[in-house]
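My current task is to audit a protein record that another person submitted. Thanks in advance; the entry in question is below:
***
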Amino acid sequence: MTLVRSGAMKYRIAMWASAGFLVAGFWALFAFATFPSTNERMRDVWTFVCLTCPVAIAGRHYPISVHEALAANAVTYALIGLIVEALRHQPHHAK
């Protein structure tokens, strides 16, 4: 039974990583689609970008490629998923 739970947990963490990849991909497409006026458009949604794609904060100070941003955001979401899933599956001790 532990093996089944372990596989399910790996699947859920992979889903978290996929969500992070898709979120970063969405923001990359948004930036490309609004290219001539990207600065004005991004200024309006910058707080939301920082909350959903934390690597964007570093991208303002250091050059980060789209591939690096996609990978970094996927890893960030996978780590968040690992923490959430670990806390979710903590054994509940009876008193």
Observations:
- The mean pLDDT is 85.
